[in-house]
Amino acid sequence: MFARIEGEVADNKDKYEMGVVKLTETGEVVSKLEEELKIFSVEVEAKKKSADAKAEVVGVEKAKVEAQNAIAEEEAAKCNIIKVTVEAKMKSVQGDLD
After folding, report:
1. What is the residue extent of each domain of the chain?
2. Model pLDDT for residues 42-97, shown as the tens digit of each residue
């Protein structure tokens, strides 16, 4: 009976020792992952700042393009008025020639 109990205790001791080893290994893996996370978060923050700066430049360029587009639309409207006026004069002159 003593041998059986001694065997159970030895088995339990082995299980506990394996559990401690696994916990230690898991702790080491978690520590490494935390270090990698710190590095990645620094990289992500740098890339985020870069993306924000580029987005700001894009916003400025977009405003410039919109301003140029407004000018182009004004010029197109002026050209359309000139076209209509010229077409009306051509019809008038053509009528005089006929």
Report:
1. 1-71
2. 999 999 999 999 999 999 999 999 999 999 999 999 999 999 999 999 988 887 77
CA separation for the pair 88, 75 (Å, rounded): 20
> How many angstroms separate the CA atoms of 37 and 41, rounded?
6
* Residue 78 structure tokens: 């002026």
State the sign of the Cα–Cα–Cα–Cα dihedral 73, 78, 81, 82: negative
- Say which DSSP state 1 is in: -
Encode pLDDT of 2-41 as tens digits.
Answer: 788 888 888 899 999 999 999 999 999 999 999 999 999 9
Q: For 83-86, which contacts have Cβ atoms below 8 Å and span 24 or more sequence positions?
A: none
